[in-house]
Amino acid sequence: MLANDVDRLGYGDCKALTNYTRALLDIVGVPSYNTILYGDTYKKNIESDFVSTQGNHMILAIPNDNDYIWLECTSQDDPFGYQGKFTDDRSVLVIKPTGGEIVQTKLYGDKGNLQNSKGNFSIDGQGNLSGSIAIVSEGSQYSNKASLENSQPNGKETHYKEYWSNINNLKLAKINLSNDKEKIAFVENVSVNAINYAAVSGMKMIFPINAYNQFSSSVKRIRNRKNPFEIQRGYVDIDEVEVILPLGFVIEFLPSNFELNSKFGEYKAEIIKKDATHLVYKRTLSINKGFYPNTEYDQYRIFTEQISRNDNAKIILTKI
After folding, report:
1. Last residue in a domain, options 76, 104, 132
2. Which pLDDT does position 216 carry in this prediction?
3. Which residue segment(s) compose the domain that 15 sits in?
4. Is the same domain home to 35 and 129?
5. What proportion of the chain, given as a percentage, has pLDDT over 90?
6. Which terminus of the chain is more exposed, N or C, with fewer CB under 10 A?
7. Do both 159 and 34 map to the same domain?
8. Can you list the positions of beta strands (E) in 7-157?
9. Do 87 and 205 fall into the same domain?
10. Cα–Cα distance for residue pair 52/290, rounded to 1 Å
11. Cα(149)–Cα(156) distance, rounded to whole angstroms?
12. pLDDT for position 55
């Protein structure tokens, strides 16, 4: 589409909107280049050694010293220069007046893909949970959350019930969302309640101490795997949660602190006992981006199983 038609109709696909933005920048003397790529959360490169029609999406590249600022012209919500999981870290074709050039888009490093959570929850004498948590997501993890800002209330409820599927009878008491597009950080403040979170049997009460961020990804067992495998994006999750135990109970069993170090990442969980009814649960999980041979697939599967098992570790209380 011509830029004039986009302006007149207020409409265009990725090619039309990219061309329109390029025309606007050209008027004020800012050079920019149409860029063809494969847009998808699964990274796919433009192949430089094979002549063919490639790509399914177009964005805009603005030269900035020896690098580029990438603009997703199709989105009205993405922060300026932010790529997220749809166009990050892949080979793309930048179309210049002098010819095409294959370059790499922005890589969000493992440590920059951060989710930092801080919260609390209390358990009453009947095993009911009440708590709140603040979650800050950055880097590629920002992509996972930013669309929540414009979701309908039932969409938000569906998201959190899936995210906290480990909490039965979940009720959302309050949801406050904040999208800082300057820092590119998405902040969630959520208050929750849940009847019978803890299982009560006779004088005993049992519940997982990690309520808010249980690792649930399962890796399929494949005997005699032939192909290598890839972790396309690494990330870091940091959690700190204060746990308030019910009065009239004593701790019978507390999960041990656990630490795991692997080429695939690191995991650490610890429980600090402040007093008879106050605990602090701290957890850090980092996953490393990488391409791994088929011979290491089973090691990776065991690594994820250990994380999942420890994330579901339970505390046992006994009634006095």
Report:
1. 104
2. 79
3. 3-104
4. no
5. 91
6. C
7. no
8. 33-37, 57-64, 67-71, 91-96, 99-104, 114-123, 129-138
9. no
10. 28
11. 9
12. 95
